[in-house]
Amino acid sequence: MKLLFPYIYERYLARQIYAAFGFILFALVALFLFFDILSELGSVQGQYTLALALLHVLLKAPSRISEIIPIAGLIGSIYVFAMLASQSEFTILRIAGLDVKRGLITLGKISLPLIVLTLVMSEWAGPYTEAKSEQIRMKALGSSYSSQFKTGVWVKDRLRDEDGSGPVRPGVRYVNVGKVEKDNEIRDIRMYEFNDVYNLLSIRSAVSGHFDETGIWVLNDVTETRFKEIKQTDPLNPVFSAQTLTHPILTLESEVTPQILSVLLISPEKMSILSLGRFIDHLQENKQDVQRHSIAFWKKVVYPFTIFVMLALALPFAYLKVRAGSVGIKVFGGIMLGMSFQLFNSLFSNVGMLSAWPAFMTALTPPLLYFLLALMGLRWVSKA
Q1: Which tens digits make up the pLDDT trace of 154-174?
Q2: CA–CA separation, 378 and 303 (whole Å)
Q3: What's the order of all strands across the beta sheet hosting 172-181?
Q4: C-alpha to C-alpha distances, 318 to 25, 71, 377, nearest whole angstrom
Q5: What residue intervals traverse the membrane (predicted)?
Q6: Three-class DSSP category at 267
Q7: How do the residues of the chain divide into helix, strand and coil, expressed in percent and rounded to 5?
Q8: Does residue 202 contact residue 162 with C-beta atoms inside 8 Å?
Q9: What are phi and psi of 266, to 5 degrees?
Q10: What are the structural domain ranges in the chain?
Q11: What is the DSSP secondary structure assignment for residue 48, as one 8-state letter?
């Protein structure tokens, strides 16, 4: 049966869903920011005033919004469909020709602006304001970025000549950075260089360093110890000599950029798709494990489209009769459904990482299963 006045009903549904979505999103974001402010009050001291703490938390709002959008879409759409069902409006739409297929197509159109909003918040606004937020806090507290390890950040690099320049040669360099400060400054640097058979070639330590405009690290107060094997007649009893050098300033070519160091200090789930892609390339070039970052990358790619899955999960609630439950119970069921999706999505990602499953399938399986659940629910309620 052909639906009468399709554009009128689509605009009506979109207006209702967007209004409910906006209200619930605002409420959830305000709730999470309130708890963030409470946890931040313990850090208020000296130049880090209450106003700066509030600004620090508010700048995290775009990241919070990107996390909450799917759940807000699910709860808001369930509320709208439940209200339409209680007032028999959805029954009128069904009589006018709104079937399951057309309903899913309509929800796909309604979800497009929300998908764009999620991409803007998670890929541009979120990372930018998150960086600004951390800069404000760090400047006020006079602290530096540091990793969860007491020994600082460890990263693998390619080996070059003894002076730190020239083409890449067989071997590996392990870099340890104690602190990453503002303006691309680093402190407490240590480097260990090995040849292709993992013989130790040199150990460098530097008090500080910075990344200049030409893409070179400039290290200050460097102490370097070089090891060389002395030729002996007995290959089973090698003898090495050590030479210690000091350099007030030492320039060093490296593939470890400030962007890579900043990536190491945050979880992959909070990185943008472009940052994850660049870091995965770096890990692959250095033959390191990329499973966690690959799963995070594909989850970020798939994540905006989970909004359509959430709206599809809400559609069966429109077919439930009024006597099947009140609007409040349906909304509560939607909250539980959204929480179950988040828990299952996180659990499946951890299992996929431990089991070394393909990253794309690990990221795609949870929303695909819940979309199939939505289709099964639609088939069941439409025949009831």
Answers
A1: 888 888 876 666 777 888 888
A2: 23
A3: 153-158, 172-181, 185-194, 200-211, 217-230, 239-252
A4: 21, 18, 11
A5: 12-35, 68-85, 301-320, 327-344, 356-378
A6: coil
A7: 60, 20, 20
A8: yes
A9: -125, 160
A10: 6-142+297-382, 153-261
A11: B
